[in-house]
Amino acid sequence: MAMGLQARNNNLKSEKKLGNSAARTQIVKQHAEVERQKSQARQWEEARIQREQRDKKLRLEEHKRNSVGCKENNALHLIIEKVFKKYWDMEFPNLGGTNPFRIVIDRESAFLIAPDYFNIIATPMNLTYIKDKVKGRNYTTLTQFFTDIDLMIDNALKYNVGEDNPYRIASDELKKKHTKIVKGVWKQIKEKQNQQNRS
User: Could you give the domains of the chain?
Assistant: First the structure.
């Protein structure tokens, strides 16, 4: 141990002999490295602050868009709910005042109601399915809602053939009513937009 201490002391003495200039050079290098690291840390911190400010600005903009979108979504869903009620409340005199478009025909019920239904219809649609989508606020546009109504009518016309078929007669009647409803809704929306543009 004494020899280890003596060796260390000798090393220190030899380092001193190398001169203060090498030590100074080393200190200058260390100081330069510390300054470089400080500078880099400042740059990183400035970049982080800029990122946070940019992110905050984006979040505020997104919040504003969502607030507007939320109001628009609420207005859209109110329209869809109101229009859907017209379809749900329809009654067809030739079918004893009932509405067959509320009936769900799926793989389980088709066996009893219409055994060949899925041989003819690829994508079933009915007012009950649409009602679930309306309640779940799944429609993001009025066009999506009307597309499902169109599909339901097309399915009914495709499946119920024959002029005397009471379901065909109800389907034709629904198609006429649907055309009037669609025109009326789009006309009201256009009028409302024109009023807002004038304001």
Answer: 75-198 (1.20.920.10)
